[in-house]
Amino acid sequence: NAGVTQTPKFRVLKTGQSMTLLCAQDMNHEYMYWYRQDPGMGLRLIHYSVGEGTTAKGEVPDGYNVSRLKKQNFLLGLESAAPSQTSVYFCASRPSAKNIQYFGAGTRLSVL
Amino acid sequence: DQQVKQNSPSLSVQEGRISILNCDYTNSMFDYFLWYKKYPAEGPTFLISISSIKDKNEDGRFTVFLNKSAKHLSLHIVPSQPGDSAVYFCAASLIQGAQKLVFGQGTRLTINP
């Protein structure tokens, strides 16, 4: 049972490049979330999804887009990366009947 | 405006003693609180939670206390073990709905032998 898997683990981008971060969960969870963590700060919610085909904005959504075409996958896209998006990105999922989020191991992204 | 604050960036405790981690929040609408533990290069893992209808929740060596009037919660670890060395995050949300967690900045706990 893999839980929540994030791909890739590390990535270096140049300013203006685009990329997609993939989150996959094998627990059949309804809810999925994308957070970012910056030094000295807690995790901040970027976007979330309450079910397949749905997405909603979190606390810091600007510069990011998301899609949830399949229940098990939640994609985070950066259309034109900026140095301010250098961060560690965490994906999480949770079942609708339980108020606990399960996190992936994170993706460390550097934008030069 | 930081709605959830952990004012101690770090804490050092001797093995076998009690560790107390603190967390304050400003939004009185929050009614569900969680503690997560994070090791380097790993994602946060759930530790313990409490809803606002309770003032205490216990799970083995871990106890969370909630003081709603002070908007304060604390995590007690007794006895502290070397494996408890990690960064601890408190988080708050509404118990209904999408559970959009708001995290504190984290406290790095070091357990000394």
Task: Describe what you observe in this structure.
The complex is a heterodimer of chains A (112) and B (113). Chain A has 112 residues and is mainly beta. Chain A is built from no helices and eleven strands. In chain A, strand 7 (65-67) and strand 8 form a beta hairpin. Chain B has 113 residues and is an all-beta fold. In chain B, 0% of the residues lie in helices and 53% in strands. Chain B contains no helices and eleven strands. Chain B has strands spanning 4-5, 10-14, 19-25, 32-38, 45-51, 56-59, 62-67, 72-77, 86-93, 102-103, 107-112. In chain B, strands 2, 4, 5, 9, 10 and 11 form a six-stranded mixed sheet that branches. A five-stranded antiparallel sheet of chain B has the order 1-3-8-7-6, with no helix packed on it. The N and C termini of chain B lie far apart (38 Å). In chain B, 34% of the residues are buried. At the A-B interface, strand 4, strand 5, strand 9 and strand 10 of A face strand 4, strand 5, strand 9 and strand 10 of B.
Give the SSE string of chain A: EEEEEEEEEEE
Structural class of chain B: mainly beta
**Regions of chain B with pLDDT < 50 over 5+ consecutive residues?**
none
* Largest sheet geometry of chain A: 7 strands, mixed
Principal-axes geometry of chain A comes out as globular
For the secondary structure, the number of strands of chain A is 11
Mean pLDDT of chain A: 96
Oligomeric state as shown: heterodimer
Structural class of chain A: mainly beta
Number of helices of chain B: 0
Task: Give average pLDDT of chain B, whole number.
Answer: 96
Secondary structure: helix percent of chain B: under 10%
As a percent range, the share of helical residues of chain A equals under 10%
Compute the CA-based radius of gyration of chain A.
13 Å
Contiguous helical run count of chain A: 0
Largest sheet of chain B: 6 strands, mixed
Radius of gyration of chain B: 13 Å
